[in-house]
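User
Take a look at the entry that follows and flag anything odd:
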Amino acid sequence: MVVTFVSNYINHHQIPFCNALKKEVGEGSFHFIQTSPMEKERIEMGWSVDPKTYDYVVLYYENREKCEKLISDSDVVIFGWSDGLIEDIEKKRLSSGKLSFRLSERIYREGQWKAISPRGLVKKYHEHFVYRNKPVYLLCAGAYVASDFDLIHCYPHKKLKWGYFPDRIYENVDKEIASGRKIKLCWAGRLIKLKHPEYAVKVAEILKCKGHSFTLEIIGDGNQKGYLESLIAEKGLQEYVSLTGQKKPSEVLDHMKSSDVFLFTSNYLEGWGAVVNEAMGCGCAVVASKEAGAVPFLIKDSYNGYSYANGNFDEFAGKVLQLFENKELITDFGVRARETITDMWNAGNAAKEFKRFCDEFIEGRVPAPSLKGPMSAAPNIKPAGFLRTMQEENHLE
């Protein structure tokens, strides 16, 4: 079986899955087509990858003929985001009757009311609806993706749970029992409004006022940095909160490994949120916004972490406080979070289940979704209305 994955560029979020799938299908049977060079912004964030390091990567902008042949002839093709550069060959493949997958985050992230747009509906008809009776499946990279596509009646009974899968190798993540010592909190991401880094600073103020012993590292850079610096100074948090600046992905993992609690505060504009996978794999107790696509798939509230709804700072702060008031939960959540990643939501398991699904189709059977985890049936989970979310967020203004 020959499998080809098409996307804009190879990056650290995709490499573990690509390596695992290459191992599953065999040497020479997996290819990744990169349709364009990586943007400067991502390179500056430490995402830079030399695609020629990986023998399965083929550059569309250097070898178009080979790439188009792979898309046409492969037994299985996965289409991610490709900037519209291969639209014609993609349409031809999806219409061919050969097994294909669309990998997508939300299409109505800013509000499902956009589904009623006549122009948008015509566009979605040609992009998705016309393939409803073809062997084209949707890999839902987020818990609310299935709901978006259900609105436009696309991929009926063919929507599958998916995501981004960090490297499974997490050395030196055994953590001390949380009770009786200073707790280390971590936040990581771009310092921009949709990720709400100020939530982390505001909850640090509450922890300080209640006399808790802790430190908070905020990792990243962005246009909210100046505001955060002012907020930290205003609240007298210099001894508690540090802004570490931008770090490479491997360095962020090192910080996660040494942290006890990870704070994830993005709003409804966050499609997935790969730092949640990473923090859970590093054994952190995660307190996360339920609006991000990864959270309902990965976190079972009060079992392997905490989630909070609709940009609600009060609920977020309350759950952070619960961890400090019941420190045994930090240890318990961290252990279970790591098990969630190492046992199920990892690149190796995703590749194994993906290959099984494809094998069943190629053998002439109706492929069965997995029972749980990657490649299981994606439920129709409705997102919170973005107006309600904005009202919750404006409560802090």
Q: What stands out?
A: The chain is about 40% helix and 15% strand. The mean pLDDT is 91. The longest strand covers residues 99-104. The radius of gyration is 21 Å.
